[in-house]
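ok, trying the design again with the full structure, not the truncated one.
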């Protein structure tokens, strides 16, 4: 009986000690990030010294060189570049647009070409406008009412959805596929309401696709600011026969070689089990890509630095991967997964930060129920930092191709209310990022990586139970 009591007491003591040890280590990680973090410094250089990093551009090349050099300074076990061919789309001269209610009576509006769009003819496109709320409404109209017109997609993001990414997902199809569907019906151009919950003058770019539409049916596509979308809609009610003019000079060039940037701390016990933390290094060209996704890249870089500075020696090999070409092709994420499969690498966990550098709220997990239920018990460790949103859901676009049975994928979930004010727009700039919020995100990611590495994914069901 005494032996049984001793074993029970020892087990309780061990669980308590383990929980306490985790609390202390996580506290040191947050302290290190908030007092001696590097993420904000790195982002300053990426944003202000390099700028927007469109795939295939000179700035993207500079970003690859810079981040590789900074990772080498950390004294990691390995740092290397992984070649990947990426598309090269260029915007050209600034776009120009106006609404014309009668000859000579015009109102200028703010537009930007969508990524992947063709240019207008040199003299621009002028035509009557047909307003629709989505692709289904367009198809219902048919060729007779669409041919020769400029299609105006004006479905706003749903404002009463608290999860703004759900609101974005609910209307982004008109941006991505709108020109393809309008081209099939003989339209001469497409104008899409910007994916933005604010009413402002800033057009938001983003990827679009023509699919397998024949070249002769492809039409130019541009985003219009939310304020000017409201104006155009109101003016159409008063003057249904008004005309819209726009001119843009973008073009798609031949693919060029770029790189994923990778750094690794080799695991001390299980070096052949790989954990990934990352973001995408490319950005759109209107701003400097601070939130999307410079923030995720520098946070991921700082995860490895914070682990080393906190004296943590990971059991598993932990890689930071800065993916190239998430915005208009996903070539980097697909290439990384392809090479990993070719080499037979065993990836057990991946975490992505691609939702901006705002205050972290927690994580969403793509995993089985048993793993999620056990990971959820760790929320109590994050609660002192007001970060305890643990939900099942998506992870990240670039790590998605790594998914396999039994693997855990996760996405950092910052507060999303302001994200789409900046997403793909000219105000996605360094001044919009709060240093403390960015550093909290880096610490939050590091803490999760630490816990997953310590307890492992295959034995996660055996971790000490932590009560909230």
């Amino acid at each position: 009986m005494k032996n049984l009591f001793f074993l029970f007491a020892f087990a309780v003591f061990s669980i308590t000690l383990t929980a306490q040890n985790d609390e202390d280590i996580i506290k040191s990680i947050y302290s290190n990030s908030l007092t001696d973090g590097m993420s904000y410094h790195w982002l300053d250089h990426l944003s202000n010294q390099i700028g927007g990093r469109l795939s295939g551009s000179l700035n993207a090349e500079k970003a690859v060189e810079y981040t590789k050099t900074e990772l080498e300074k950390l004294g990691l076990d390995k740092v290397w570049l992984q070649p990947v061919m990426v598309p090269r789309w260029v915007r050209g001269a600034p776009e120009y647009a106006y609404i014309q209610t009668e000859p000579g009576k015009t109102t200028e509006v703010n537009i930007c070409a969508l990524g992947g769009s063709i240019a207008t003819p040199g003299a621009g496109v002028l035509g009557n406008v047909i307003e629709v709320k989505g692709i289904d409404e367009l198809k219902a109209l048919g060729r007779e009412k669409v041919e020769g017109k400029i299609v105006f997609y004006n479905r706003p993001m749903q404002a009463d959805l608290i999860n703004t990414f759900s609101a974005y997902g609910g209307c982004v199809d008109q941006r991505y596929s709108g020109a393809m569907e309008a081209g099939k019906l003989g339209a001469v151009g497409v104008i899409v309401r910007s994916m933005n919950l604010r009413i402002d003058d800033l057009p938001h770019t983003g990827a679009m696709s023509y699919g397998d539409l024949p070249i002769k049916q492809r039409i130019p596509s541009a985003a219009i600011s939310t304020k000017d979308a409201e104006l155009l809609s109101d003016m159409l009610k008063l003057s249904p026969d008004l005309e819209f003019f726009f001119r843009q000079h973008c073009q798609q060039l031949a693919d060029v070689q770029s790189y994923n940037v990778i750094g690794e701390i080799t695991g001390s016990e299980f070096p052949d089990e790989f954990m990934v933390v990352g973001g995408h290094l490319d950005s759109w060209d209107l701003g400097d890509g601070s939130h999307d996704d410079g923030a995720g890249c520098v946070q991921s870089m700082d995860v490895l630095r914070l682990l080393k500075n906190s004296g943590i020696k990971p059991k598993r090999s932990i890689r930071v991967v800065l993916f190239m070409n998430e915005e208009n092709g996903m070539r980097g994420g697909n290439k990384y997964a392809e090479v990993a499969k070719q080499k037979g690498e065993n990836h057990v966990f991946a975490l992505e930060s691609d939702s901006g550098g705002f205050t972290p709220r927690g994580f969403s997990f793509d995993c089985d129920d048993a793993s999620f239920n056990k990971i959820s018990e760790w929320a109590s460790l994050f609660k002192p930092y007001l970060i305890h949103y643990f939900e099942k859901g998506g992870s990240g676009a670039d790590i998605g191709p790594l998914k396999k049975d039994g693997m855990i994928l996760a996405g950092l979930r910052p507060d999303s209310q302001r994200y789409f004010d900046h997403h793909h727009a000219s105000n996605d700039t360094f001044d919009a990022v709060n240093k403390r919020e960015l550093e909290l995100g880096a610490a939050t990611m590091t803490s999760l990586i630490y816990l997953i590495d310590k307890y492992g994914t295959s034995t996660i069901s055996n971790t000490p139970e932590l009560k909230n």
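Keeping the full-length input from now on. The chain has two domains: 24-89+254-462, 95-249.
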